[in-house]
Amino acid sequence: MGKKTFLEAVDVTKSMLNDVVFMCESRMKPTYFTREGNNKLSFKSTILFSLFFVKKSIQLELDAFFKVLNPANVSISKQGYSQARKKISPSAFIKLANAVVAWFYKDNSFKTFNGYRLCAIDGSVFELNNTKSLRGRFGYVHNQTTSYARARASCIHDIENDIILTSKIAPYKSSERDMAMDMINELMY
Q1: In the chain, what is the straight-line distance between the N-terminal and C-terminal CA atoms, in Å?
Q2: What is the C-alpha to C-alpha distance for residues 138 and 118, in angstroms, rounded to an integer?
Q3: Among 43, 64, 69, 92, which is disulfide-ready with 33 (CB 3.0 to 4.6 Å)?
Q4: Can you name the residues that pair with 151 across neighbouring β-strands?
């Protein structure tokens, strides 16, 4: 097989988004996204917007995105989008990413370095919304007056093919080495 294209990866994602079983497994409650017809935000459109690269304010991006998707003057508020996004399990995005990675490597037409996949692992600490629940879940740093929610993120990146194989977000105090071992073990199965 020749070089794989971005549009082929989009097709993998599209087929999953059109799969009713995937939708049923990926919503937070069985009653979410069950009504057909007047819903402005479907399961599919909510995920598609979540995958959209937001560069401006969320409201401007929502308006532009849904103008293309549905040219009738349908307006989606950022609050409406936020409520719809909360109805989708985070596992949906993991399944989508894993499906694209599996598709990419399925026929052994990817680049290697001396016959090996050349991968790098890197991590970073980033700031989260500073809420009590996120500070409790991921940890925090504090100065004399305030505590700031933080998390540690890490990923395994195939350098030759420029694709992230897996990633992980963990509490701020997590060990980068432990996270790396977890990701490596995850890839082995």
Answers
A1: 25
A2: 31
A3: 43
A4: 126, 171
For the chain, which residues make up each domain, given as ranges? 27-88, 111-188
pTM score of the predicted model: 0.81
Task: Give me the half-sphere count of Cα atoms (radius 13 Å) on the Cβ side of residue 11.
Answer: 7
SS3 179: helix
CB 161 within 8 A of CB 110: yes
Phi/psi at 125 (nearest 5 deg)? -110, 135
Q: In angstroms, rounded to a whole number, what is the distance separating the alpha carbons of residues 148 and 173?
A: 13
Residues 180 and 122: their CA atoms lie apart, in Å, by 9
Range with the lowest mean pLDDT among 1-10, 19-28, 69-78, 108-117? 69-78
Tokens of residue 96, six digits:
């989508």
Q: How far is CA 181 from CA 3, 29, 61, 118, in A?
A: 31, 33, 38, 16
- What are the Cα distances from residue 63, in Å, to 18, 41, 54, 99, 140? 23, 13, 12, 29, 35
